[in-house]
Amino acid sequence: MIKEQSILLDKLQGSFKPGSEIREKTWKMLLEIGLPSKKSEAYKYTQITSILEKNIALEVNETPTFNKRERYKSAGTHLVVLNGVLSVENSEIEDGVIIESKDVSEGKHDPFSLLNAAFCPEEIEISIEQASSPIFVYHVNTIGFSNPRIHVSAKANQEIDVVEKSFNNAGTFTNSYISFDLEANAKASYSKIQSYGEVSYVHETIFAKQQRDSRFFSNVFTFSGSLVRNNITINLEDENCEGHMNGLYLLDGKSHVDNNTSVDHIKPNSYSDELYKGILDEKSTGVFNGKIYVRPDAQKTNAFQSNNNILLSDNANIHTKPQLEIWADDVKCSHGCTSGQLDEDAIFYLRSRGISEKKAKAMILTAFAAETIAKVPVQEMRDELEQLIALKLS
User: Fold this and answer.
1) Are 184 and 211 in contact (CB under 8 A)?
2) Which of 196, 278, 316, 338 would bridge 200 by S-S if both were Cys, CB 3.0 to 4.6 A apart?
3) 121-130, pLDDT tens digit by residue?
4) Cα distance between residue 201 and residue 46, in whole Å
5) What's the gap between Cα 59 and its chain centre?
């Protein structure tokens, strides 16, 4: 990464409050490496730093409130996070679920994770003592620059499901970070709906670290937002691990969504499967940059990656770049991408049976998206996704 003088970092300098050793260390590292510049390959199609400099007023500050009607009705733990701080009075915590608020424990080395570690008000730790219902997390972000941070621990032989929803005010920049630590034979799933306002800017980091025989599932669905960048990383650090990434972006207007994924196979006999689908209309833009690494010791690896897109407008754009880097010789790996328009033959077939053109297109697109919805473990969230897709396609 090429460091370039950043107006945004200059603005943030005045807001930085030295505190813990980690906070000061991460801020110093960020100043050394800088935020992504126009020459940064990882942000080639998403000029996030310059966009934020032009559009974000850091002094925006409103008192956050949470409308309980926005909650899922499912049984489970419901956590409300207001501008990065856990609101105990608005939350409901089931027996067997342990929630702690503490100082940031570490900072990863990519710029926005460092930025989060330097500015987040508290790190929310989630763990369980026994099998439980899903854990629902609701973020309300009303300040110009917010940095919510969550760490989830899945102990040996445990199963844990986390579902997130965010509510952002117009003109805000949310830089969130959620990490998962899976011990032996643990299973964890993470599901999120991203449905932001037209003037909302979001950078989200999802990081999972896995031990032997563990399984991790990520499901991210994006419907709107001026700029949304998702950095998703899975490290398979031991044998017989499974990592699954699943995503759908259904965009219109001038929404810009960038999914940057990484799966690192470090030990033998691991498996990863990645499926991202996009439906883009009007002047929207999608970016998919997926990487699979297979290290020399990771023999018997099975890794698959697919990105499929349908463009509904001549003004919509997709930039897709699936990548494999393999240093082992006894593996099964594949990657691929497709981009195109709706199948006219399929539309004609449906219209010949009395279905209107509009309904025919909606049926085809709904079927295209259905595979991603089926992977979500919480029924109430699947119901909401079906409603959002139907609303978008109507």
Assistant:
1) yes
2) 196
3) 899 999 999 8
4) 12
5) 26
